[in-house]
Amino acid sequence: MPAPTTLLLFSLATFLLTVTPGPGVLYVTARSLSQGRRAGFASMFGIEAGEVVWMVAAATGVAALLSASAQALDVLRIAGAAYLVYLGIQRWREIERPATPAPARLGRVFVQGFATQLVNPKVAVFFVAFSPQFLNPSEPIAPQVAVLGAVYIAVAIVVDITYVLTTSALSARFMRSAKAQRRSGRIAAGTYVALGVAALASGIKRP
Fold first, then answer.
1. CA–CA distance, 66 with 122 (Å, rounded to integer)
2. What is the mean pLDDT of the chain?
3. Alpha helix ranges (H) inside 19-140
4. Nearest-5° angle of CA 55, CA 117, CA 187?
5. What is the pLDDT of residues 122-148, one digit of tens each?
6. d(CA 64, CA 73)
7. Alpha carbon of 185 to those of 91, 94, 99, 121: distances in Å?
8. Residue predicted with more confidence, 170 or 108
9. Given 56, 76, 130, 153, which residue has the most CB atoms within 10 angstroms?
10. What is residue 185's predicted lDDT score, i.e. its pLDDT?
11. pLDDT tops 90 at residue 70
12. pTM of the predicted protein model
């Protein structure tokens, strides 16, 4: 079990990392802005589910193997970039259709959030390069990883809930007209594509 001071420092570091906008935050805010609070929470749970998978991978050593392979991380980076571009193009096509598109089902929103985080190499780098700094090698590693992972998820949920509530409140107030909805959709689509292209061009960077 990590010491209280270790947990406090890890929580602070996790907060600073997760509060910075990246693919996960972008997806959560875009869904909250376009479809409201329920879609925002569905996207948030998808993002957190993807992070749980990476947490389990870190505990079992899979993430360490990926981190040691530049080619494997390049595959994740390219896949993540391509997926973000795909989401942006899909979102733009929905906005440009003559008829108002039906809101995406919550299950689809969840799966897209899950996939967004699953192909995010930042999570692998986080649990392999950053988390070990808070581990005590003289004690069993797996329980420590589990505790730190739980702290990470708890902090991420608080951050994401804040984004969902704030963005959905702004959506309810300012996105009532069809023109405003189209404008926000285009901004979200363009941001997806720009972020994907940037990730593809610049290599692995923390979102």
1. 12
2. 75
3. 23-35, 37-60, 62-68, 70-96, 106-118, 121-125
4. 155
5. 676 677 667 767 877 777 777 887 888
6. 11
7. 7, 9, 14, 26
8. 108
9. 76
10. 64
11. no
12. 0.69
Give every CB contact of residue 1 below 8 A, 6+ residues apart in sequence. Answer: 139, 143, 144, 147
Cβ-in-10-Å burial (0-12, 13-18, 19+) of 124 comes to buried
Q: How far is it, in rounded angstroms, from Cα 30 to Cα 178?
A: 16
Residues 51, 56, 58: CA angle, nearest 5 degrees: 90
- For 48-60, write each residue's pLDDT tens digit: 998 888 888 777 7
* In contact, 43 and 157? CB cutoff 8 Å: no
CA distance 140 to 147: 12
To the nearest 10 degrees (0 to 180), the angle between helices 141-174 and 37-60 is 160
